[in-house]
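Work package 3, deliverable 3.1, input record:
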Amino acid sequence: MQHTIKYFGMLVEATSKNEEQLQTEICSVAQLIQQLEHRYPKLNEKNFKVAIDQQLVDNDFIIKDRAEIALLPPFAGG
Amino acid sequence: MRYNIIFMETKKPKNVFKQGAITSEFIGNSIAKHQSKTNIGAHNIFLGQVRADNIDDKIVTAIEYTAYEEMANQKFHEIREATFSKFDLTCMHIYHSLGKVNAGEICLFVFVSSPRRKVVFEALEYVVEAIKADVPVFGKEIFEDQTHQWKQNT
């Protein structure tokens, strides 16, 4: 499956990327995070939420093909 | 009233973001535009200003804002709809900065209006707290020596 992953704020620094395409097997959010933390060890120290197609999801959510996945560090609006 | 609800549900999210600081001229013009809406008896305005925090002996000189813009505009839209359904408001406007905003400048402008005053006090607090908690906006606090840290709402 092919996904777009978007990084924001401090996670852009941790991954040196704003966005990337990623191929995965069918997986849950928790499994995806594990893969990403393996690829970008600095993510391990970060606190973030995950949004899929612009909705916050839990770790057991199963990711569908061609999802837009966003890793969101703590909010700081206002 | 029923017409209003249907209308709001079908409305597309607006773009809340403005590049750079929100100027006092923009805020003044926004107030002036409401003079024709004579059913309004009370406005309430929240202005978020960038604070020159002192963190470990370094002073914050600016915040650089970024956002997951599509999701953020959708969240602002949901907050608007929830606020209109909870409170008897005539209108509401929200503007948030993107990019660099210097200490002392305005980065958030929320404006609610109603026929009566009590509702605008409650509604404004509700809107501002929801923005702080639910909208994916990120802030890089830049110090005098150009180092930075990431802001986090508490």
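Chain B has one domain: 13-150.
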